[in-house]
Amino acid sequence: DTAVSQTPKYLVTQMGNDKSIKCEQNLGHDTMYWYKQDSKKFLKIMFSYNNKELIINETVPNRFSPKSPDKAHLNLHINSLELGDSAVYFCASSLTGNEQYFGPGTRLTVT
Amino acid sequence: AQTVTQSQPEMSVQEAETVTLSCTYDTSENNYYLFWYKQPPSRQMILVIRQEAYKQQNATENRFSVNFQKAAKSFSLKISDSQLGDTAMYFCAFGGQGGSEKLVFGKGTKLTVNP
After folding, report:
1. Which residue of B has its CA nearest to A54?
2. Are A42 and B108 within 8 A, CB to CB?
3. CATH number of the domain that residue A68 is part of
């Protein structure tokens, strides 16, 4: 009965590779988000989608491409991975009032 | 743009005592939401408490309560009867009025509850 799930939870890969992180929510929310948490624990928004439409696209390199096949799913694809992409990536979802529920996070390590 | 400041990078408290975590924010909006999230070592982000800016009454959730001062743009979290399981990073976050607004987070306060 997980509310917001992400796969994988851990991802170790080499520089230059392409990888994807998947997110699914079963809360019936219509807005989903991707946040990045850096090594100093700072959390920052990357993208948000509302009913499959891109709403927020912060200053993120275009190597990062979100895709929302339906309003319950928001995936993140990263091309040509760099060392600086190493971080924890959180998916979140919300319905109203900005009360966002977070997934367990994906720790990405680029070597 | 909104900013959120948590001026205490680390704090510690003895079990069963009370601790207050500080948060200030800056915004030109009149209606918004404020949140405290907890991130234990498990990494999961857990919503602790939320406050709507239009409500004067401070929010409470069991041992957690806030002191919301809208004019001063201050939003502190009080944890009463601290428990070992309260050990975690605590993040203050600002959310705009719209349903799809991003959350702007502070840098967090690392709280340790000592036995």
Report:
1. B100
2. yes
3. 2.60.40.10
Find the domain containing A67 and state its range: 4-110
Burial class (CB in 10 A: 0-12, 13-18, 19+), B21: buried
Show the domains of chain B with their CATH numbers: 3-114 (2.60.40.10)
CB-based contact, A15 to chain B, within 8 Å = no
pLDDT tens per residue, range B6-51? 999 999 999 999 999 999 999 988 889 999 999 999 999 999 999 9
Contact B31, B100 (CB under 8 A): no
**Diameter over CA atoms, chain B:** 42
Q: How far is A55 from chain B (nearest CA, A)?
A: 7
**Domains identified in chain A, total number:** 1
Phi, psi at residue A85, to the nearest 5°? -80, -10
Helix, coil or strand: residue A72: coil
